[in-house]
Amino acid sequence: MTVMRRDGEMASRIYNFNPGPAALPLSVLEEVKEEFLDFKGSGMSVAEVSHRSALFEGVLNDAVTRLQRLLKLPENFKVLFLQGGASTQFSMVPMNLIPPGSSADYINTGTWATKAIKEIEILKKPFSVIASSEDRNFCYIPKNFIVSPGAAYLHFTSNNTIKGTQWATFPNAGSIPLVSDMSSDILSRPFDPIPFGLIYAGAQKNLGPAGVTLVIIREDMLARAPKDIPTMFRYTTHAEKNSLYNTPPCIAIYMVQLVLKWIEENMGGLDAMERLNLQKAELLYSLIDNTDFYTGTADSDSRSKMNITFRLPDENLEKKFVAEASTNGMDGLKGHRSVGGCRASIYNAVGIDAVRVLVDFMKEFSRKNG
Ligand SMILES: Cc1ncc(COP(=O)(O)O)c(C=O)c1O
Fold it and tell me: Is 181 a catalytic residue?
């Protein structure tokens, strides 16, 4: 597609349905480009300024404040920017948050939850898997489960990027703190942060580029960490130093700050973001539901608004679909290598125009190949 840049010139872009790294708002990319050689009149690139300079701290603190505002975080929640991806959180969470004599609860809804469970197993910390949707290849979100009384926390993955399922409402664990991997749906909708002890998200889907991981932690959870955790793996290390204990991924944090500004100032905040995301998902699901050619892989009450997973009548047609979509300017529609099929990832930065183009292409493809 050809798009108008901020400077009035035209740029050639494709419709990006990649699962992560994923589409970023064009205006953010342009802002980065414009400021790249001379960041805020400093005569340096943001990649060159000291992370301890007032300039960079301004970026970091603005990102924190915007997140607090967008997510309506109470004051006792700390916002941290860490490294190592969401995958490092699979082990940092159990290392830090299970007091002696206590055990954690996990709900297994697919690949990423399974990986989180594998890490607590390696660490030999006590845990129970209180619910799983593995019996039907993770195509649904479990409904009936009992949270263990006194559990240290209940861990769940809010959106299952690979299987295309999402928690429509979060589990109710009473006073047991929720811990959630929100890598693939953070900031796609508003939610109540109060029941959460910790939230983590790799940036590369809804927040910015890869290289930084957002962690939001309730202050009382910080005190739980045993004394023998190596420095970099302790949340307190990063909380006490405002994420500046060591050199942070400055460019990634800067881009996250711009994405947050875009959500607040261009998109109208999380309520508006959610309305748009619902509209986008609805366009695709209603097409899928109204044809025999495409079949959704997730149960309807568990469907993700971010990753729309579907199958075609056979694998050859799926290959042809992905290839023809690519020729028509749409990228990233191949399902995850572990599950096959097709997947359209429609994160915040994927516009409704892109979804409309995909829907038209899908209609035409099924007409020609059905
Ligand atoms: C839900 C979820 N959790 C965790 C990860 C892993 O994130 P990272 O690559 O940042 O470790 C992903 C990556 O796609 C994901 O979708």
Answer: yes
